[in-house]
């Protein structure tokens, strides 16, 4: 019953599609696909291995993968329960909370970065507490990168997981309860397995978003090689002095993105639908 | 274990936008009660409240002497500690578990070991004739198979009260009779094949249904719910013979004669043979003959020559029903009680031809192939 990609029966004729829709559809597709082609064409494939294995490049790639992984984990730890609360709790006021959760989706990331800076930064109220009580300074550290990425990617996990929870419905959970399952058992043995595909696609989306994060990171964490300079930041920095290097690094990001889509495609589309 | 198990006493009020459920019931242990009523009458609300999925605005529910709900002392035992099982219209088998694991779910929650739960699941599956499906996934089952497995799963939870919410209405017409026969068996209505080891004692159950036949075949008692209130309550035969509500009258559009199944039909307690078509699992046990009033022909004098069921009756009432007139029979002097309340639908012209008016003796005749014989409770 866990739906996979719908299989289209080749016998089905359907009502058909007006042919005229094909034209804008193809233009739209070209708008997305052609720039990627342009990037591949521009790339100096002969020097590709050399360009992407330079010290700064490897360090940025490693940092990107590590921070994106940690952010994704944080999204799961906090976004998962948040999605469960939004989908299942009947608490009043939840209607007001959902738009807040979606805020990072529509907010320009650089604005998010500034918001983080003036909250957790030295002058922000959160930052002052952290610094005075614990001696921790967050901005312009790797922790800031993780925080910025978590901020922008959390909604992806929450939205896709909440969608999965709503689709699964509460009827299975009611049945499980009448069979004697405690709320914890229902969650572990019924709810979780039912929404696992939703969790998977949410994680992949959140990871992809974290990996591509730029605006919030540069505003909140800066671009220090080895500490806060992730791959997108490096691409931005070298694009004027070393075009070939920037293009090669961009291609690395394209490959990672394609891999992510290949893994998560069908469910991701449903989750966000 | 067999007596005193599952006695339900409930008194509850629950306000909904379209109606207010306001019900007081007492169900002795082992009794099966059919709940009939129009859509939106509160049938499912009643079941969900008993299961603990809804909290009533006011009321008290007691099962087997255990207090499940008491709004005055703010007691609300959660669904998983009620021992109230629920079987809905949809089987709702957990899609990520095999059939065996679905049935083992209840025993596992009750603390059985993995092996013990699997063994119990096997037993319950065998009980519903689904042992061969154990290794399958729910997606690989037909509707009827899924519902049988869902029944096994509900029973494996060892509920003291079983709630059945239209368990047959999503099934195809050709599989519903087998499921009905199975329900009859597990509800302890008697008959052969009651599972070895479990369920010998009759089970307390509430069955929501739209079908009169379910009520007759499965239930000891019929409760008619309209707009959240119980408007009829009594043995099926009685409610149907003397409907006191418009809904009762509508569902009572069938004639019922109870007796014992026999070769070619059913024999009433006074020895009259009612010829009919035997249905599922009617071999010598208690049964009912069911036939619609439209299948009854009415004569002034005894008709002869045809292989019909012919009963002498006394006409007691004429009720206009859309385009026909429903004649209600009474018992003539010395006649058997079961004739009371039998109905025949005839045209107004026929009423005139027969010179029929209350008090007139008539003959009711029914062809054998219009009479269905069904197993009945007790």
- When the domains of chain A are counted, the total is 1
CATH level 4 superfamily of the largest domain in chain B: P-loop containing nucleotide triphosphate hydrolases
How far is the first residue's CA from the last residue's CA of chain A? 19 Å
Number of strands of chain A: 0
Individual helix count of chain B: 9
The parts of chain B where pLDDT drops under 50 for at least 5 residues are 189-199
Give a topology summary.
The complex is a heterodimer of chains A (273) and B (378).
Chain A: H1 22-42, H2 48-52, H3 55-88, H4 94-106, H5 109-120, H6 125-134, H7 142-168, H8 171-178, H9 183-211, H10 215-220, H11 231-238, H12 243-272
Chain B: E1 8-15, E2 20-27, E3 32-36, H1 43-51, E4 58-63, E5 66-70, E6 75-76, E7 84-87, H2 99-109, H3 114-127, H4 143-156, E8 161-165, H5 176-186, E9 204-208, H6 212-218, E10 221-226, E11 229-234, H7 236-241, H8 246-251, E12 255-262, E13 265-267, E14 273-275, E15 277-278, E16 286-291, E17 296-299, E18 308-321, E19 324-330, E20 343-346, H9 348-354, E21 361-367, E22 372-375
Parallel strand pairs in B: 3-9, 3-10, 7-8, 8-9, 15-22
Antiparallel strand pairs in B: 1-2, 1-4, 4-5, 5-6, 10-11, 12-13, 12-16, 13-14, 16-22, 17-21, 18-19, 18-21, 19-20
Description:
The complex is a heterodimer of chains A (273) and B (378). Chain A has 273 residues and is mainly alpha-helical. Helices cover 74% and strands 0% of the residues of chain A. In chain A, helix 9 (183-211) packs antiparallel against helix 12. Chain B is α+β, with helices and mostly antiparallel strands. Chain B has 9 helices and 22 strands. In chain B, the strands form 4 sheets. In chain B, strands 7-8-9-3-10-11 form a 6-stranded mixed β-sheet, sandwiched between helices. The A-B interface holds A 1-2, 171-172, 174-183, 185-186, 189-190, 193-194 and B 51-53, 78-86, 88, 90, 92, 94-96, 105-106, 109-110, 138-139, 153-154, 156-157, 159.
């Amino acid at each position: 019953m866990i739906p996979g990609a719908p299989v289209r029966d080749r016998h089905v004729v359907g009502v058909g599609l007006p042919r005229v829709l094909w034209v804008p559809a193809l233009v739209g597709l070209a708008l997305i696909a052609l720039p990627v082609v342009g990037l591949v064409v521009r790339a100096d494939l002969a020097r590709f291995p050399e360009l992407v294995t330079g010290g700064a490049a490897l360090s940025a790639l490693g940092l990107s993968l590590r921070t994106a992984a940690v952010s994704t984990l944080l999204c799961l730890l906090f976004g998962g329960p948040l999605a469960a609360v939004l989908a299942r709790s009947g608490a009043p006021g939840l209607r007001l909370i959902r738009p807040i959760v979606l805020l990072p989706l529509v907010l320009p990331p650089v604005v998010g970065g500034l918001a983080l800076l003036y909250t957790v930064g030295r002058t922000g109220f959160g930052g002052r507490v952290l610094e005075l009580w614990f001696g921790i300074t967050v901005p312009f550290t790797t922790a800031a990168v993780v925080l910025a990425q978590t901020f922008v990617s959390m909604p992806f996990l929450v939205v896709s997981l909440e969608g999965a929870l709503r689709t699964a419905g509460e009827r299975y959970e009611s049945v499980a309860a009448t069979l004697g399952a405690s709320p914890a058992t229902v969650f572990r043995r019924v709810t979780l397995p039912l929404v696992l595909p939703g969790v998977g696609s949410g994680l992949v989306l959140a990871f992809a978003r974290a990996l591509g994060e730029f605006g919030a990171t540069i505003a909140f964490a800066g671009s220090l090689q080895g500490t806060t300079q992730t791959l997108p930041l490096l691409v931005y920095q070298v694009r004027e002095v070393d075009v070939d290097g920037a293009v090669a690094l961009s291609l690395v990001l394209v490959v990672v993105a394609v891999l992510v889509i290949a893994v998560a495609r069908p469910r991701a589309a449903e989750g966000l639908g | 274990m067999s007596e005193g198990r599952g006695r339900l006493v409930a008194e509850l009020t629950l306000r909904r936008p379209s109606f207010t459920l306001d019900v007081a019931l007492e169900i002795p242990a082992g009794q099966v009660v059919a709940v009939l009523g129009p859509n939106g009458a509160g049938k499912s609300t009643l079941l969900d409240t008993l299961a603990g999925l809804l909290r009533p605005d006011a009321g008290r529910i007691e099962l087997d002497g255990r207090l499940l709900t008491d709004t005055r002392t703010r007691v609300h035992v959660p669904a998983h500690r009620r021992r109230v099982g629920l079987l809905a219209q949809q089987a709702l088998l957990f899609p990520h578990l095999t059939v065996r694991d679905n049935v083992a779910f209840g025993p596992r929650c009750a603390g059985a070991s993995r092996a013990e739960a699997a063994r119990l699941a096997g037993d319950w599956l065998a009980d519903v004739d689904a042992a061969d499906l154990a290794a399958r996934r729910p997606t690989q089952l037909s509707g009827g198979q899924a519902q049988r497995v869902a029944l096994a799963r509900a029973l494996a939870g060892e509920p003291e009260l079983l709630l059945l919410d239209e368990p047959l209405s999503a099934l195809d017409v050709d599989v519903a009779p087998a499921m009905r026969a199975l329900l009859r068996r597990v509800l302890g209505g008697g008959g052969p094949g009651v599972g070895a080891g479990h369920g010998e004692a009759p089970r307390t159950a509430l069955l929501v249904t739209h079908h009169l036949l379910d009520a007759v075949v499965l239930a000891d008692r019929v409760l008619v719910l309209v707009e959240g209130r119980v408007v009829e309550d009594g043995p099926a035969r009685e409610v149907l013979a003397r409907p006191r509500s418009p809904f009762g009258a509508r569902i009572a559009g069938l004639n019922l004669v109870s007796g014992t199944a026999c070769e070619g039909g059913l024999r009433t307690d006074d020895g009259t043979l009612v010829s009919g078509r035997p249905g599922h699992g009617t071999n010598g046990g208690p049964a009912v003959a069911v036939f619609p009033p439209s299948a009854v022909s009415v004569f002034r004098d005894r008709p002869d020559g045809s292989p019909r069921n012919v009963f002498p009756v006394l006409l007691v009432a004429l009720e206009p029903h859309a385009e026909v007139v429903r004649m209600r029979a009474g018992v003539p002097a010395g006649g058997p009680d079961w004739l009371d309340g039998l109905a025949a639908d005839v045209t107004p012209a026929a009423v005139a031809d027969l010179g029929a008016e209350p008090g007139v003796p008539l003959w009711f005749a029914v062809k054998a192939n219009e009479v269905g014989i069904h197993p009945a409770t007790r």
